[in-house]
Amino acid sequence: MIQGVSCLQSVLAPVLALIGWSLLIWLWMYAKRIPAMSKAKIDPQAARFPGSLNGLPDDARQAADNYNHLMEQPTIFYALAFFTYLAGQQNDLTAGLAWAYVGLRIVHSLIQLTVNRVTLRFLVFSLSTIVLIAWTVIVALGALS
Fold first, then answer.
1. CATH class of the structural domain 7-144
2. What pLDDT shows up at residue 52?
């Protein structure tokens, strides 16, 4: 329970879920990256510049790229979730949109970490962006009324 609201009706529970997913991807990234760097005999100091680890195998790079993606657009998600909560606009619809966004980001991660088909990733990314847009419009209209 989050202040009298079930986890499925809360916009804060999906925030916690995406934070947990991001931390799992962080572990996945280093589980791939450290052995790959060791095998390639890359000095960790060589990673001080962006792109310096482009010679690593795809699976190690994909995990790092996905972690970076989870630090980009989801910042809007986090801000929107907290705004929704603080503005008192938490309801079944906004919670559903929050969970939809998290689900789509997890699907995006799984695509990037496995088959890594750009068109499929872009489709899922676009759907997640549409969810954010719809949620933003709903909350903005609620704030204006």
1. mainly alpha
2. 79
**Does position 9 have pLDDT exceeding 80, yes or no?**
no
Taking the C-alpha atoms of residue 87 and residue 81, their distance in angstroms, rounded to an integer, is: 10
Burial (Cβ within 10 Å: 0-12, 13-18, ≥19) of residue 135: buried
Q: 94 and 59 in contact (C-beta within 8 Å)?
A: no
Q: Six-digit token pair at 105?
A: 């980001």
Domain spans of the chain, in order of start: 7-144
CA distances from 12 to 3, 31, 96, 98 (A): 10, 29, 11, 9
pTM of the model: 0.91
pLDDT of 4 reads 62
Euclidean distance between CA atoms 144 and 116, whole angstroms: 41
H helix runs in the chain, sequence order: 12-39, 58-69, 74-86, 92-113, 118-144
